[in-house]
Amino acid sequence: MPxxxxxxxxxxxxxxxxxxxxxxxxxxxxxxxxxxVAATLQxxxxxxxxxxxxxxxADLWTNRTYDRLRLHLPKAFCELPHVGFxxxxxTYPTKHDFLRYLHSYASRFAIGPLFGRAVTxxxxxxPASLWRVTTxxxxxxxxxxxxxxxxASPWLVVxxxxxxxxxxxxVKGRDRIAGEALHSSEYRSGERFRGKRVxxxxxxxxxxxxxxxxxxxxxxxxxxxRSGVHVLPREMFGASTFGIAMKLLKWLxxxxxxxxxxxxxxxxxGDTAKYGLKRPKLGPLEIKNITGKSPVLDVGxxxxxxSGNIKIVPEVESFSGNGARFVDGNEMSFDAVIFATGYRSxxxxxxxxxxxxxxxxxxxxRCPSNSSWRGPNxxxxxxxxxxxxxxxxADALMTAADIAGRWQExxxxxxxxxxxx
Length: 421
Known about the structure:
The chain is an alpha/beta fold and 421 residues long. The chain folds into 2 domains: 3-164 and 345-420, FAD/NAD(P)-binding domain (3-Layer(bba) Sandwich); 166-339, FAD/NAD(P)-binding domain. The chain has helices at residues 32-43, 59-63, 95-108, 205-216, 241-249, 254-269, 284-291, 301-307, 388-420; strands at residues 3-7, 16-21, 26-28, 49-52, 114-115, 117-125, 130-137, 148-153, 156-158, 165-166, 180-183, 197-201, 220-224, 231-233, 235-236, 239-240, 296-298, 311-313, 316-320, 323-326, 331-333, 336-339, 343-344, 379-381. GO terms for molecular function: flavin adenine dinucleotide binding; indole-3-pyruvate monooxygenase activity; N,N-dimethylaniline monooxygenase activity; NADP binding.
């Protein structure tokens, strides 16, 4: 059973945060990755503790996504280990469908995260062979317990995800925008922008879909494009583009599959460069493997770009009052600016380990391998492979199995020690 150790400073007062020593691993994050690890550990009868800074599971999906969001891949590629989606769910579940699935998943495996625990520091205590994780209580903590608590375990699973903190571009004059300015994490619906000229900075899946949503709500969207982007149809020949790619990759090299995808995409969509969306030199899957950046899977925005309802503009050079100046020298006025500029991991801000993660919060070994999810001294990461929910599920299975084997060894050793007394 977990033990709690009270500590004091050298003067014997001002108690240091209580340390709770755990039997099983500490999992940071109660999103899909953390839930997948917990469920699989449950299957192995291994105890665990999930630390979650928000007040509910899947905080990103619950509080920082737009209303019309659907999974961009078919549900078959987005299932967590052990439990599939209900058969009556659509091929591309809505965000509300997905949240229902996650809550049912957590309930099925009796997963009860400790909510309102924001991890502020995690480090490896080599003499004790333990990971020590310090948390601070957030506003969502519903108890009067200490504001700071330390947890200790031989194993630490980082499952806080690649999308923890918003990324805002460093553009001159951004702080002087007179109209409404927000990050895509704050966007819910285009209704509030009806009749307004809206600049969307960013042309990924979120930026494209927000432009579509703005159009459908009577707004006038302009999408700022900084660099090349691959736009692919969501389906080819009546099947998922992603599914086709996965099947082809079993037999063909990435570059050959990329050539096929682009050939078909050009047949279906036409030349995207004619409308301001130049394709990068590298293929979509090659870019995905190298950077983790996904191609855009079109769900309707492309036809509105071709019709001129969504206007493509260059990279923003600076903002001034109600206007934006672009790198081509043109200036335009807008009522609102939405920054669809993505997220980043916050792991470097609290994990004191320079081996598994880089300074920008990405694992040093991005390429899928048998050990890319495992670091030194019982440190693991799940959901950082750049392969979305599919990769998170695979990481979770391997991580939980590895921890289960080591946990069983400790139980056998503990039993042997008791018998020898």
